[in-house]
Amino acid sequence: MATKSELEHFFATEFTQADFLIEEVGNRRATIRKRITEAHLRPGGTVSGPVLMEVADAALYVAILGELGLVAMAVTTSLNFNFLRKPVSDRDIIAECTLMKVGKALVVGEVSMYSEGDQEPVARAVGSYAIPPRK
Amino acid sequence: MATKSELEHFFATEFTQADFLIEEVGNRRATIRKRITEAHLRPGGTVSGPVLMEVADAALYVAILGELGLVAMAVTTSLNFNFLRKPVSDRDIIAECTLMKVGKALVVGEVSMYSEGDQEPVARAVGSYAIPPRK
Amino acid sequence: MATKSELEHFFATEFTQADFLIEEVGNRRATIRKRITEAHLRPGGTVSGPVLMEVADAALYVAILGELGLVAMAVTTSLNFNFLRKPVSDRDIIAECTLMKVGKALVVGEVSMYSEGDQEPVARAVGSYAIPPRK
Amino acid sequence: MATKSELEHFFATEFTQADFLIEEVGNRRATIRKRITEAHLRPGGTVSGPVLMEVADAALYVAILGELGLVAMAVTTSLNFNFLRKPVSDRDIIAECTLMKVGKALVVGEVSMYSEGDQEPVARAVGSYAIPPRK
Per the CB < 8 Å rule, is B128 touching D77? Predict the structure, then answer.
């Protein structure tokens, strides 16, 4: 297991490209926030699909490291997205991840993404991760 | 919208191959039960994947008809499954469907499937349905 | 590896519910045929979605056993379907499977399904399988 | 329909964040190239998952605009990824998209992604797009 501050330190030092804030992590869950700026928008003023996909990937990774610890290797094997509504352009994206299965060899989690303050998700994702055997 | 008894009548008369019980339907949700018998098992004594897939498809269909009414045409465009745990052989499968989006042209729902009495889902599904324009 | 006749024997004796014909298997590929009868149709005269899903699952299983041998344990972890066209009611379904990855711990394959004689697929599937470590 | 040069002009003027080269487009297909630099790598020296997802999204969009023309509105409804092998760090990513269905209301396409020069794909994607009715 890894705590919020351990994860923040890890991303700040090892994953310097990571660009999100961890709001909560623990108990097979994680919530992260993506600050939305002009750079994340598509013509028409909505958050681009690839930004949502990157946020979902990050939320799953935070939840898995939070559960398995920083030494864990987790290899993404599949990621499925359903895009449900247009995110608004002037609010952060909040991604809430729940791990549905934490097995020895396989972890599966889902992510709901919201424009901050909205009840209805803008997108949903489900990801599968292979956990290599420890030697 | 269609009620539980309208849906039961519909499946009994129009979809005579349908083989499940509607437990609840309404408010963008549906719960159905699949009675598990020897015919649904795989070697090793677990409910087969295709049976779970059929149940998920049925739960989504019940939830959509419950929301849109019996006249609705809904064409399945995609169905994604994650298999999480082995179902036990001697309990019914309970499938709980929630519609995440009910748009004019697109409906998206998710299904969690359980061996009756268990807290942890045996499988999850997400389905997308195109709703043809009404003439 | 398992040959066509070994696989036919296996399904006839161990998987007596299996209901399809193996047309070809080998080189990370398999083609199977599902005879379509009244029992497989939906109102409106099209092959039902669950029948297509069962056929895809079978084609993937045949291709994996053909590649890894009959002793192989392969646990389905995810199955994703896209439904593209209505199958016609009076032709068999042909399912062609190709394994895209055959790793030690993970096998991924795709299936294209056709109404016999048509060029355009009625559905596509992608499946992931975990291979438990051999003891 | 839109030609390669029309599409290049479109992305250069309307989608200035787009960062890829169109190699070929036409006949329901598109091939694009993503130049890989340090900024696209993960610790361990492999191309990050979000970069692959962005490339797949772009390849699908190019193929759809190539087929339907620049006026087309296409709303991504689902995107499914299977990650098959680690991309190498020092080669471009080549994404080949084929549209499997081009309907009035729905377009479905698949993308195979490669480290340039390799035969085996590093990832596969399938995307669904809703086409709003023209007024």
Answer: yes
